[in-house]
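Quick note —
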Amino acid sequence: MARDEHRSIMLRLLFAVVVLGGGYVGLCLWSAGHLPSTVIVGGESVGGMSPDQAIEAIEEHAASVLEKPIVLTVPGVERSIEVIPAKAGFSVDATRPVAGLVGFTLDPRTVWARLTGYVNRPLVTGVDDDVLTGYLTRVARDVAVPVREGSVTFPDGKVTVGLPRPGQSLDLAGTTLALRTAFPDKRAATAVVSEIAPTISEGAVRTAAETFGARAMSGPVVIVSGKTRTKLSPREFAPAVSMVPDGDGGLEPKFDKPALATLVASRIAVKTKPARPARWTFAPGHGRPVLVPSVDGTAVDAEPIPGQVAAAISSTKRTVTIKTVPTRAAFTTKDATKAGVRELVVDFTSPFPPEDTTRTHNLVVATRTINSTYVPPGGTFSLNAILGERTKAKGYGDGTVIINGRLTRGTGGGISQVSTTIYNMAYFAGADILDFTPHAFFIPRYPEGREATVYWPTVDNRWKNDTPHGMLLQTWVAGGNVHGRVWSTKTWDIRSVKGARRNVKPAKTIRDSSAKCYPQQPQPGFDVTVTRQFYRPGSSTLVKSEPYTTHYIPEDRIICTNPGAKP
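Predicted structure written out below.
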């Protein structure tokens, strides 16, 4: 019995060992998948949780930490800035704090520590430096304090001093370190700022005010013109005076010289005499040109005045004397004498029907405007530039004009007669024809292919005097003709050769019942070429030739059937 009892005891002991061993292994397996009973990460308790549960809990806690603002105090700025860590590039790693706290082991010491131990770990944080730098760069614009430079100004002629004040800017590197140190445990941080010193010291500002400023505004500046003495008070000239940095730590005066010149001109009346250029008139009866000599004048010597006034403002000697200087005419008698206006080069007449008195009046107004025009060597003549827009205010009435191949009435109508005269004057003077436009259809009173219309402002009559001599134009209306002459020194003998008509097209007959109808007489359309030939005076040798081809459309016969239309 003793042996059986012993065997039974051994079996029971073996069973107990097996049961206890199996329980221990089970305990080891459980502890391998769960955190110790007391684990705190960043103030959040995650003890006894599985790793996944702990990571999820840490992430939820981190989300609230990342959204909780850090109050950033900026020295010298009253308001603080709330920095949201999540927006500023901060982040939290939820996996690293639970690393090493789980895993299978049979070591009873490790198992015991997991069952009874205490673990307190901080949040593992990171930051994206580029995001944080960009965030603080935006903040820096709002918290920067601009430097205030010292100033000396002169409102109402009084010296006013503005003292300098340093500015500041956000130190990005230092502020970044302050935020990284504060997160995640602290809710406040102090920004690091850099001071920006003014370029001009307070002493330099006061010195400028006490020296130049006090002297400049000490009293009036006296302007002397002949027997007239005029005082300019500090209140008057102060707007043209300022003080600016001199580049060496001080202030220096600056003067608005155009404003000083305008001020003096508004207060001082100086007796001057304008110079008159040489010009030509014509002897009575449309005779030869008569030279009217130029006359010298006098003018204010204006160029040094602003500098003189500035010097007087800066000095204790506060008087400026205005002087006049002789002026020469832009075109002197000597210039006119050398111009070569000595002989009649072109004499051209253009006939017109005198029945339309308004049209004739327009011709008179235009020729009087052009008469005595001088075109120097190399100069350009423009009919539109000389006449300008033809308006009733200038004396023009309604005359005949051509629009879209039909005659009608318009202000300044008939001026094409003058334009044709001018064109032929330039043509036979040998000038360089730059711009001309023939009429749409042929008008019998004009030379075929040698005429030009004009219309403000799009159709012009322009030519250049490319001869070595000046050209004086003489124009007038008499005896049903527009007369045009060019006085100069003959450079060319011009011959004009007209070719035969080509591509002749007959006119149509149109009956028009409108009240604005204007009757027309039929003329065929055709092409014609006119050649300008250049010869030296007295020579029979052709130097050059210039062909001009003109296309005329047919002038339709217009029969007006409306009793109210113009007959």
